[in-house]
Structure to design on (331 residues):
């Protein structure tokens, strides 16, 4: 019977669940690689011979903010899933000379339409991702970016389109002027990164997580505090997050960049996103020729359990449709 199951799996190109579970261990060690001015922490889940799927996280997010179950499901679908900490957060580092950051001053300049000073840009962060692929010996990859990670992914696809097998942009933006802005209260929560103690920092992060969640989902405060504590205990670097925020604020509109992209692209956005309202996603898709737009009712700006299946249902068909030729899943 086991032989028949294996044969059926091979003929259908679908990995056996038992073998997929074994190879898709999300507890594999986190590795670190030095890449010039950055040191990136990453985790590779799955087999080297499977097509790579690079996950790019958003502002202040760490690789642990990609839900383990989602990473496991992506891997079980036949991908080598690589998640990493962007420079300046988590266990990654930017080893450049860090200037002092006056975020409040730069935010005022941004609101006045004046240039914003940033020690590095989103394109530099896209370069980090490409260098990570180089270090891992990966020539081509599927790329999935969320929020700021989607902005970074846009640059990555522009810098090296020949290396991007498919592009998935979740809850992100084109950065164009005139798109709906988040509320000042939410921006204040997002910018509030300094805290006098671990307890205050965790409470602040739980407040932010709650504000980024869907109004259709009742969050458990204890779970939010637990999530915030896990991230804090792994790494807490408010100045690094502020530098990432400056990179976003200093970024001009990416409309021209999007207009020239010719990578198979899926844009996924929630109808209840309080940080980047749904028109941000609509605008991104409108400027990428041939892209597909999937709107998820009720999804906000956070990976919440209630939206795990709708997100996977949106993302997986796109990824599977654009798997590299010859990369048939093997047992």
């Amino acid at each position: 019977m086991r032989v028949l199951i294996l044969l059926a799996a091979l003929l259908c190109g679908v990995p056996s669940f038992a073998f997929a579970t074994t190879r898709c261990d999300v507890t594999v060690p986190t590795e670190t690689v030095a890449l010039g001015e950055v040191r990136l922490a990453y985790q590779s889940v799955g087999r080297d011979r499977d097509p790579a799927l690079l996950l790019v996280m958003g502002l202040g997010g760490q690789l642990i903010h990609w839900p383990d179950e989602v990473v496991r499901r992506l891997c079980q679908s036949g991908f080598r899933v690589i998640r990493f900490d962007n420079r300046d957060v988590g266990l990654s580092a930017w080893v450049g000379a860090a200037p002092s950051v006056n975020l409040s001053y730069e935010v005022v300049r941004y609101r006045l339409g004046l240039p914003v000073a940033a020690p590095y840009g989103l394109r530099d962060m896209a370069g980090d991702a490409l260098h990570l692929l180089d270090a891992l010996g990966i020539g081509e990859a599927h790329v999935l970016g969320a929020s700021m990670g989607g902005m970074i992914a846009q640059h990555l696809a522009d810098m090296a389109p020949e290396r991007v097998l498919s592009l998935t942009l979740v809850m992100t933006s084109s950065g164009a002027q005139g798109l709906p802005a988040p509320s000042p209260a939410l921006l204040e929560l997002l910018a509030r990164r300094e805290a006098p103690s671990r307890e205050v920092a965790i409470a602040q992060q739980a407040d932010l997580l709650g504000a980024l969640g869907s109004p259709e989902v009742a969050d458990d405060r204890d779970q939010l505090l637990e999530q915030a504590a896990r991230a804090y205990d792994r790494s807490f670097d408010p100045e690094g997050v502020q530098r990432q925020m400056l990179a976003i604020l200093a970024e001009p509109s990416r409309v021209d960049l999007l207009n020239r992209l010719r990578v198979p692209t899926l844009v996924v956005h929630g109808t209840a996103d309080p940080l980047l309202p749904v028109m941000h996603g609509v605008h991104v898709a409108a400027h990428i020729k041939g892209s597909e737009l999937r709107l998820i009712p009720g999804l906000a700006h956070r990976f919440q359990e209630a939206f795990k299946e709708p997100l996977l249902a949106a993302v997986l068909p796109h990824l599977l449709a654009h798997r590299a030729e010859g990369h048939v899943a093997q047992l």
